[in-house]
Amino acid sequence: MTERITAVKGMNDIAPPDSAHWEWLEARVRALLARYGYRNVRTPIVEPLALFVRGLGEVTDIVEKEMYAFEDRLNGEQLALRPEGTAGVVRAVVEHNLLYDGPKRLYYMGPMFRHERPQRGRYRQFHQIGVEALGLAGPEADVELITLAADLWRELDLQDVTLELNTLGQPAERQAHRQALIAYFEQHRDQLDEDARRRLYTNPLRILDTKNPQMQALVEAAPKLLDHLGAHSRAHFETVCALLQAQGIAYRVNPRLVRGLDYYHHTVFEFVTTSLGAQGTVCAGGRYDGLVAELGGKAAPGVGWALGVERILELLKAQQRLPAAPVPDVYAIVPDAQAWPTVLPVLRTLRAAGLQVLMHASTPDGLGSMKSQFKKADASGARYALIFGADELAAAQVAVKPLREGLAGDVTHQVTLPLAEAAAWAARLRPAHAPR
């Protein structure tokens, strides 16, 4: 027997019925984003390696340890599988001059790649939905994005999702805070773990995000960025807080929230849950006013967030908020292959009327008996069976049999209909999948 080939560890297939939940979530998000005026952008999965080194920061964990980077064997170009979405979106905006006629509100959906140890809610190929507002400088844009996410949790009826908020100020303020952190941690070097010592001079802000319980007291007493903010940065953050309060959106200021990417300035935020164990962040983002210029464009502000699709689906599952698996409206039972010339046009008419029609078809063992076809019709979850038997077809009719109790419509017991009236019956029958 030929050896089976399996998927790469941490890169998972998504098959029915699970894929229906992905489609359902994506459709809900798209509908909400449209109401906020966001439009779709699609960028390549493979990008120049320099995009992420320059955009994310050379000493970030993603660039140092997690990226899938490789050399194109045909031309020697240094490439990478995208580990996140923002840098690629900004690259596209700069490359195609998308800001020439004013601000843009964009969103993306798709796979990202990081070489991590696979665990629940954390995979080597994972999927993000992200939004980016470019060309908007005011705190009201930060709040719009946070509100958008909060509205999504409400529409999905998700509980146990809380907002944590912080500000990173402007680059000069971050630099002053950085020096203060280095000086502070140098005085307590013997209390730093190996990871913190490695980051001390390259990215000391990330020490504040340590999960090491033995360093918590040390980190709590570290200098606060809030103490280094100028008037403009304080006003920006205070306005964000005030506008959230005006909408009744609860939040907690977390001075240790720093995010893992170098491009963030001013507002940063995370939506977190206690329902997923260690992988508690379900959506995160912030303002990145310097990234457009860093990637070669004319300086322009930006703010965005990304959510992890796998984690949102895990949370929906844990809270029993996922919809039931979709089922067909009609299952077509065809006992004789000679009937196909008559059956297929009728089924096409029903589908054109909006019904989901599952057609019984031959297997290597043939069409099967009427009894076996009825068993498959029932197992499919279909609401109705259409029976194209020899007697019915001889009279230019089809039998309609309800398969479920309490069905709405004009057929509550088995009846026969003229084939010519099948389309009219379909029009009267509200599809099970139609919006409610």
Fold and architecture overview:
L-histidine binds at residues 84-86, 114, 128, 132, 259, 263-264. Belongs to the class-II aminoacyl-tRNA synthetase family. Keywords: Aminoacyl-tRNA synthetase, ATP-binding, Cytoplasm, Ligase, Nucleotide-binding, Protein biosynthesis. The chain is an alpha+beta fold and 436 residues long. It has two domains: 18-169 and 229-318, 2-Layer Sandwich (BirA Bifunctional Protein, domain 2); 330-427, Anticodon-binding domain (Rossmann fold, 3-Layer(aba) Sandwich). The chain is 35% helix and 19% strand. It is built from 15 helices and 16 strands. Helix 1 packs across helix 5 and helix 5 (139-156) runs parallel beside helix 9 (231-246). 34% of the residues are buried.
Domain count: 2
CATH superfamily of the largest domain: Bira Bifunctional Protein, Domain 2
Assign the CATH topology of the largest domain: BirA Bifunctional Protein, domain 2
Count of individual helical segments = 15
Derived from helix and strand composition plus strand pairing, the structural class reads alpha+beta
CATH class categorisation of the largest domain: Alpha Beta
How many angstroms does the end-to-end distance come to? 50 Å
CA radius of gyration is: 28 Å
Mean pLDDT: 90
Summarize the topology.
Blueprint: H1 18-35, E1 39-40, E2 46-48, H2 49-56, H3 61-66, E3 69-71, E4 78-81, H4 86-95, E5 104-113, E6 125-134, H5 139-156, E7 162-167, H6 171-187, H7 194-199, H8 216-220, H9 231-246, E8 252-253, E9 265-272, E10 281-287, H10 291-294, E11 302-308, H11 309-318, E12 330-333, H12 340-352, E13 357-359, H13 370-379, E14 384-387, H14 390-394, E15 397-402, E16 415-418, H15 422-428
Parallel strand pairs: 1-5, 7-8, 12-13, 12-14
Antiparallel strand pairs: 2-4, 3-4, 5-6, 6-11, 7-9, 9-10, 10-11, 14-15, 15-16
Helix pairs in contact: 1-5, 5-9
